[in-house]
Design a protein that fits this description.
By secondary structure, the chain is α+β, with helices and mostly antiparallel strands. Helices cover 39% and strands 16% of the residues.
Length: 313
């Protein structure tokens, strides 16, 4: 790309962003998302082409640290990294939840002082070993996830506890429906592209698939993963900024949470100033009473204020 074309693209980027900011106010995170979308539409290479080149930089390395520890690093495609982290989190949570409660713990084994020495010494040793094996698991969540990570890589069988069995990783990505249909139909980018003018010519670029509603990923990877999905969630987004306006599930998306945190600033209950980042997103019109998960029907509320908000004047 020569300097003239680069300057023209930058000018077009500024023009489109200023026009968008004239029409609505965007919080910082939504502004970054809008800027990323506009920049993506003006790039010379598609996200798939850049991703294919970046895939060639994959690697795994081990760096020794102090006290017999190390740092294990891996450069992977983002979808795979997200899936690994999600599975470790879910399995770790399952193992921690499955721990026996102290009140229900049953004493096992027999102390050495309660058994005679001599021929029964082996039984005492076995009892002590059993008691040690039944000691309460006091590992932190990070420790549990690290152990699961090592187990999966070294043995391919991390199921030391049945509670972790059957847990699969999940990732959230968005595929623009017109882009997907155009891709599958092989008819070009005409009906699903975002239009921009660069150097006096109109440029059409297919809208990319997005991971977590924010990060562009190759459309081919998203379509391949969608082919194995057990269910789909319909999401309504703003056509320019990509801000999620509504979803067909109870829980809002990360993008909706970011927008509402910036909008509400603090708990919406009168007089409460708890920061919105630490509040729950609650449905103003209750979900169980046909309330929708939309930006207009969600607000940040402190947990203690949720039960009575529908009845407030």
């Amino acid at each position: 790309m020569d300097a003239v074309e680069q300057s023209a693209r930058r000018g077009e980027f500024v023009r489109v962003m200023l026009a968008e900011l004239d029409s609505r106010v965007l919080p910082p995170k939504a502004l970054r998302m809008a800027a990323a979308r506009v920049a993506e539409s003006l790039t010379e290479e598609s996200v798939s082409e850049r991703h294919e080149r970046a895939r060639k930089t994959r690697y795994v390395s081990v760096t020794a640290t102090e006290n017999g520890m190390c740092l294990l690093r891996a450069r992977l495609p983002l979808i795979e990294g997200k899936a690994i982290a999600d599975r470790l989190r879910k399995q770790g949570k399952a193992l921690v939840t499955a721990r026996p409660k102290p009140a229900n713990a049953k004493p096992t084994g027999t102390s050495a002082t309660s058994r005679p020495c001599g021929p029964g010494a082996d039984d005492v040793a076995d009892a002590e070993a059993e008691a040690e094996a039944d000691a309460p698991d006091e590992r932190t969540m990070d420790e549990v996830k690290a152990d699961l990570f090592a187990d999966m890589l070294l043995t391919s069988d991390p199921m030391s506890c049945a509670a972790a069995a059957g847990i699969q990783a999940s990732v959230q990505f968005t595929i623009p429906i017109l882009t997907a249909l155009t891709k599958l139909g092989g008819s070009g980018a005409g009906s699903s592209a975002s239009a921009s003018r660069v150097g006096g010519a109109t440029r059409l670029t297919p809208a990319p698939a997005l991971l977590d509603g924010m990060i562009p990923i190759p459309l081919e990877d998203a379509i391949r993963l969608a082919g194995t999905a057990t269910s789909f969630v319909r999401i309504l987004t703003h056509p320019i900024t990509g801000t999620v306006e509504a979803v067909d599930t109870y829980r809002p998306t990360a993008a909706m949470r970011a927008y509402l945190t910036a909008r509400d600033i603090h708990c919406r209950w009168p007089g409460c100033r708890q920061p919105a980042a630490t509040c729950d997103l609650d449905h103003t019109h209750a979900w169980e009473h046909d309330g929708t998960t939309t930006l207009e029907n969600l607000c940040g509320l402190r947990l203690s204020h949720e039960s009575g908000h529908e009845f407030a004047p």
